[in-house]
Amino acid sequence: MIMLKRVGEGEGAYLGDRAPVEIKKDGKSYRVSVTGGRSHWEARTVFMSGVVISDELLAERPIILSSPDVGSIKAHQRVYMLMNLAP
Length: 87
Hints:
The chain is mostly beta strands. The chain has strands spanning 2-10, 21-25, 28-36, 39-48, 51-67, 71-82.
């Protein structure tokens, strides 16, 4: 068994980013725009006998949620992705 670890950083939108998004604050729903900051990501792939057993990635970035109704809210986004296909 071999584990390959990759680490990196980047700028820009994530694949599948939606804009605007809906959040709840004090029991009310609001539509806000999302502005992402610089991302840091870490990925691990596990191989066994030349076959990928596991391939996962964790990406994190600061974000700002904003709308005229709620102003600007600083937050932290964490996205966990499984990148290998299941049979």
